[in-house]
């Protein structure tokens, strides 16, 4: 691991002086190679993570969109200036790189999350260290190989592997100036504390409990279709997966149709054609999901659809959990207070939109939320009143495209600058401001002389 830092340090000393246009050229070449090898990367995700091919290709595409944004780095890195701010005085500010930055990545998006970080930091002039999840390292290795083939200098991107020792190394090493993390609450809080204690910048995207509100005037068929996809896609293993649906008034009558639609989803190994959701990541994850479902039932929730006990022919020992719908859930229940991170949708019933908003705003997490309605005034009021960093209007997973930033808040994020977009550029650069004074009176015309110069 120390070798990786030394390699990055050497590369940075050269890369920091490389022109911004040269960085742009690297991003353009890298962009083309990822597009060319999308299927190869996606196939690796299916094998290591268990995703369906469609979901895996989406994983790569979402990461590629960040690389697309990085090709505009000359515009994104422009500083500010004011001339004649005082007599004969100008001020100019530049965005300059930090040095070496590191990214610690989760298992659920093996391509997208690495691409959220190291292309941005390298485009900003830094060298990068990438630690993929030990469960799914393959995509990072493919991406690193393509980066080299795109023309990246040796040592500009370094991949290290491991668990706790590797994390501590990143958090504590004095040459690493910033740390990006996406993952669980427990790990995120530890990484934030340790990295901050060692003087580093930190951005941590952590847990979530994403809600949506379904109003009676919503388009029923479209709403139910979107709820099913958002709650159960990727086996619910998304930090922006829909965890809770709050049905207001008569919309609660739609729940049986929701359960029927979820029941029709095909659960199988990700490489099997026609599969809608694959397995969860591990036997431990499967057991935890089962226990939280059982906790909900014991506390009074109703199982409208039970995905436990699912056996997939040919993969009898697989980590499969079928789509599960819990109704009559209360905010005090364990199945609500904990992030399940599986294909489980908790349904809450309220009489008014105000009650629904109050429930969401009291939740400690703030990654994303959504409302389904055909009333524009209601949607606008919801967006302004709700306390979540990303809001969808008839969009169940409101993840912004990379020209914006991923802006989860409250308990879902620790740090000051978010991932990608303008916040991402701010995170991976620091501002150098130059105040310069050139007195007009110091300028003088120097007459030309044709006489023989002397040594006097």
Walkthrough of the structure:
The protein has 16 helices and 18 strands. It has 456 residues and is of the alpha/beta class.
Helix and strand topology:
Blueprint: H1 2-15, H2 20-36, H3 38-49, H4 53-70, H5 73-76, E1 80-86, E2 89-97, E3 100-104, H6 112-123, E4 127-131, H7 138-149, E5 157-159, H8 164-172, E6 176-182, H9 185-197, E7 201-205, E8 210-214, H10 220-232, E9 242-248, H11 255-263, H12 283-298, E10 302-305, E11 324-327, H13 334-337, E12 344-350, H14 353-362, E13 365-366, E14 368-372, H15 376-385, E15 390-393, E16 409-410, E17 413-415, H16 421-427, E18 429-437
Parallel strand pairs: 3-4, 3-6, 4-5, 6-7, 8-9, 8-14, 9-12, 11-12, 14-15
Antiparallel strand pairs: 1-2, 2-18, 7-17, 10-11, 13-16
Broad structural category: alpha/beta
Total of helices = 16
Shape: globular
Largest sheet: 7 strands, mixed
Question: What's the Cα radius of gyration?
Answer: 26 Å
Spatial gap, N to C terminus: 62 Å
| Strand portion | 15-25%
| Spatial arrangement of strands, main beta sheet | 10-11-12-9-8-14-15
DSSP helix fraction:
25-40%
Strand tally is 18
Which key terms come to mind for this protein?
456 residues, alpha/beta, seven-stranded mixed β-sheet, six-stranded mixed β-sheet, 16 helices, 39% helix
Summary?
The chain is of the alpha/beta class. Helices cover 39% and strands 20% of the residues. Strands 10-11-12-9-8-14-15 form a 7-stranded mixed beta sheet, sandwiched between helices. A 6-stranded mixed beta sheet has the order 5-4-3-6-7-17, sandwiched between helices.
């Amino acid at each position: 691991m120390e070798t990786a830092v030394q390699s990055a340090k050497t590369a940075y000393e050269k890369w920091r002086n490389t022109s911004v246009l040269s960085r742009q050229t690297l991003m353009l070449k890298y962009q083309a190679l990822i597009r060319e090898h999308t299927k190869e990367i996606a196939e690796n995700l299916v094998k290591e993570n268990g995703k369906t091919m469609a979901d895996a290709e989406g994983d790569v595409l979402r990461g590629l969109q960040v690389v697309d944004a990085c090709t505009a780095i000359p515009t994104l890195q422009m500083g500010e200036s004011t001339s004649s701010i005082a007599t004969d005085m100008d001020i100019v500010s530049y965005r300059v790189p930090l040095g070496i930055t590191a990214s610690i990545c989760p298992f659920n998006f093996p391509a997208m999350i690495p691409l959220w970080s190291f292309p941005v930091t390298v485009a900003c002039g830094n060298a990068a260290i990438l630690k993929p999840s030990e469960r799914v390292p393959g995509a990072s290795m493919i991406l690193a190989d393509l980066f080299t083939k795109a023309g990246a200098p040796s040592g500009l991107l370094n991949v290290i592997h491991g668990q706790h020792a590797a994390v501590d190394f990143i958090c504590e090493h004095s040459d690493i100036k910033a740390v990006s993390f996406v993952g669980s609450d427990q790990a995120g809080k530890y990484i934030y504390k340790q990295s901050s204690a060692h003087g580093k910048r930190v951005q941590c995207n952590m847990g979530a409990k994403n809600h949506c509100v379904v109003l009676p005037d919503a388009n029923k068929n479209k709403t139910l279709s979107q709820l099913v996809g958002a709650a159960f896609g990727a086996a619910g293993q998304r930090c922006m997966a829909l965890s809770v649906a709050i049905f207001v008034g008569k919309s609660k009558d739609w729940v049986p149709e929701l359960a029927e639609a979820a029941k029709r989803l095909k659960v199988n190994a990700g490489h099997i054609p026609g599969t809608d959701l694959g397995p969860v990541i591990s036997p431990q994850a499967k057991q935890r999901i089962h226990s939280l479902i059982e906790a909900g039932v014991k506390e009074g929730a109703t199982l409208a659809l039970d995905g436990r006990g699912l056996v997939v022919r040919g993969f009898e020992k697989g980590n499969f959990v079928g789509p599960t719908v819990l109704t009559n859930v209360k905010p005090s229940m364990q199945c609500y207070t904990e992030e399940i991170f599986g294909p489980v949708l908790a349904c809450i019933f309220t009489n008014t939109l105000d009650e629904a908003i109050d429930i969401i705003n009291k939740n400690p997490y703030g990654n994303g939320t959504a409302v389904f309605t055909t009333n524009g005034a209601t949607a606008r009021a919801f967006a302004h009143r709700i306390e979540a960093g990303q809001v969808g209007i008839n969009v169940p997973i409101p993840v912004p495209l990379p020209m914006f930033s991923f802006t989860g808040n409250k308990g879902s994020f620790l740090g000051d600058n978010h991932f990608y977009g303008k916040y991402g550029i701010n995170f991976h650069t620091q501002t150098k401001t130059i105040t310069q004074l050139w007195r007009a009176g110091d300028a003088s015309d120097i007459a030309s002389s044709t006489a023989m110069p002397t040594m006097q």
